[in-house]
Amino acid sequence: MSADRAESGRPLLTFAAPRRAKPARHLADMTMAERRAAVAELGEKPFRADQLSRHYFERLTGDPAAMTDLSAATRAKLAEALLPSLLTPVKEITCDGGTTRKTLWRLFDGALVESVLMRYPGRTTICVSSQAGCGMNCPFCATGQAGLTRNMSTAEIVEQVVAGARAMAAGEVPGGPGRISNIVFMGMGEPLANYKAVLGAVRRLIDPAPAGLGISARGVTVSTVGLVPAIGKLAAEGLPVTLALSLHAPDDELRDTLVPVNTRWKVSEVLSAAWDYAAATGRRVSIEYALIKDINDQEWRADLLGRLVKNKLAHVNLIPLNPTPGSKWTASRPEDEAAFVRRLESHGVPVTVRDTRGREIDGACGQLAAATP
């Protein structure tokens, strides 16, 4: 994080990752027009980009041997140039009868990131990382305590989803062959601090095949701790993706501690940006609130949150904290959670309590990476 000064003299915070070598260029980094130009540069007809894209995004393969509509020489050349290996699986652990799968990936430079595939009756969600580490420094978050290593590329983000889609299509997840229906940018990192790559990934995910995976934009959720300018920028993109605001406290005094970026953009500013986003997109904002024992789970805070959210296009998603080893932070008592829900409901606020899958497999983002050398 660095601080520059706006004309007003007020510090203007930026969240730049350390400069490092970049991952290899990949098909998923590019628009269709860019892919056609890249293929032409390799001495091939531009329509070969459409064929290559169809293999990757529709048939979910990067194996040149499977691309039988291309000559052996052509497929090898294009795959080498545009389908490099970006993610190497290090560890995979499962729970819930195999329907929850957490994968630890090693990137080309050794950085570690995580994704989680969760199959439910009627839908399958994948939670993806957008940065290796995170620079937001939230004290109850394993990733935040690890610090920021670097931003991920668009293709590194997309590859997590493609890997999950392959597993689903191959019937590797109990329940038979299926498809991914929902994507949540709630893994490692602050998505809006890696805005360009995340936006590129969203477009690759929702673009119809062969340009992308063809997943409904309404099935995509982008989370943020509250980077106000970036929320406004995302609202102007015209994409009907859901915004999830990680609020965690309704008052500035506590949120300054739990979500340090609140010292730059206060609760009122963050919520104002969220309501503007809802107005611009017509999409209901999800207010994420991790319930932490004796920290933010008091009934008066539920009342304050209820007053802030009532009559807005929003719902509150309460998250029983998934504690990290050695941390003083832990989940609220069941009776305090129930009281918090009741107080929100008394204000007419829609509220849900998140299904805490993955607790037994280090489900909190960053736990598996932190435990891996």
Short summary of the structure?
With 373 residues, the protein is of the alpha/beta class.
What does it look like?
This protein has 373 residues and is an alpha/beta fold. The protein folds into two domains: 27-82, DNA polymerase, domain 1 (Orthogonal Bundle), CATH 1.10.150.530; 88-370, Aldolase class I (TIM Barrel, Alpha-Beta Barrel). Helices cover 33% and strands 20% of the residues. The protein has twelve helices and 14 strands. The protein has helices at residues 32-41, 47-58, 72-82, 142-146, 154-169, 195-206, 228-235, 252-258, 267-281, 299-309, 334-346, 367-370, and strands spanning 2-5, 11-14, 88-95, 100-106, 112-120, 123-127, 131-133, 148-151, 182-185, 220-224, 242-246, 285-291, 314-320, 351-353. The protein has a ten-stranded mixed β-sheet with strand order 3-4-5-6-9-10-11-12-13-14, with helices on one face. A two-stranded antiparallel ribbon has the order 1-2. Strand 5 (112-120) and strand 6 (123-127) form a beta hairpin. The chain is elongated. The protein starts with a strand and ends with a helix. Residues 1-14 have low confidence and may be disordered.
How far is the N terminus from the C terminus? 26 Å
CATH superfamily of the largest domain: Aldolase class I
Shape, principal axes of CA atoms? elongated
Give the SSE order as H and E letters: EEHHHEEEEEHEHEHEHEHHEHEHEH
Which structural class fits the helix and strand makeup? alpha/beta
Strand content: 15-25%
Question: How many distinct beta strands?
Answer: 14
Q: What is the makeup of the main sheet?
A: 10 strands, mixed
Strands ordered across the widest β-sheet: 3-4-5-6-9-10-11-12-13-14
| Total number of distinct structural domains | 2
The top level CATH class name of the largest domain: Alpha Beta
CATH topology assignment of the largest domain: TIM Barrel
Q: Which range best describes the helical content: under 10%, 10-25%, 25-40%, 40-55%, 55-70% or over 70%?
A: 25-40%
As residue ranges, the low-confidence spans are 1-14
Whole-angstrom Rg? 21 Å
CATH architectural designation of the largest domain: Alpha-Beta Barrel
Supply the number of helical segments: 12
Mean pLDDT: 91
Enzyme class: transferase
GO biological process, one term: rRNA base methylation
Function: Specifically methylates position 2 of adenine 2503 in 23S rRNA and position 2 of adenine 37 in tRNAs.
Organism: Sinosporangium album
